[in-house]
Amino acid sequence: EMDDLDHYNNAHAVFYKELQAYRELLENTNVINWGQIFQIQGLQDGICEISRMVALSKEVDVKTSSFQMVIHSDPDTLPDVRLQMDPKLTLAYLDISHAKLLNKAWSRGGNPRCQKYLANLICCFPSVCVLDDNKNPLSWSLTDQFATMIHGYTLPEHRRKGYSRLVATTLAKKLHSCGFPAQGNVLETNMPSIALLKSMNAQFLPCSFFRVIHTPFHFLAKSH
Description:
This is Glycine N-acyltransferase-like protein. InterPro entries: Acyl_CoA_acyltransferase (IPR016181), Glycine_N-acyltransferase (IPR010313), Glycine_N-acyltransferase_C (IPR013652), Glycine_N-acyltransferase_N (IPR015938). Its EC number is 2.3.1.-. The chain is an alpha+beta fold. The chain is built from six helices and nine strands. It has two domains: about 10-70 and about 210-220; about 80-200, Gcn5-related N-acetyltransferase (GNAT) (Aminopeptidase), CATH 3.40.630. It has helices at about 20-30, 45-55, 100-105, 110-125, 165-175, 190-200; strands spanning about 10-15, 40, 60-70, 90, 125-130, 135-145, 150-155, 185, 205-215. The radius of gyration is 19 Å and the shape is globular.
């Protein structure tokens, strides 16, 4: 069932050579449902400006964010992480029962739609986590519908123990073994995550990753 307020699932990835092609996609086709809240992701310059221009004519608000794009193009360059963990801890996959904790911890989450979205990702795509002796995750990462590694997180009381590096490296290797690319994005100001990615020999691409969330004016009050 379609939820017009759910920008997590109402998501599109765009790729184009000519900026005009993106503008025509938004203006002249029925590909995009402008009656709902949705997001568009892309790597090309100009995506934010064109989205704002077209959205204004359709009475739609636009919020943009940009990140550094990173890839792990060669699985052989990923480090061999050997971590002496407490015997009570286990390296495992996320379970749907963990979605509530992930939703609470995610800067993009904290709402029922996000929790449902995360539960669906856990069910459908690869994930990795470290579980404590009560089977609760204390460090994790998962994959979204665009085969992007997202929501890498370690609970504050368990940081600086190597869990994030173990989880991220294991997930990247898992994605490669399944035939997926190992890719992600990171805020330019998130120095701990950037240091982690560098320790994994990640390749930082010269382009930025853009996320553009479009919200029809009449939905603005409902989306908060």
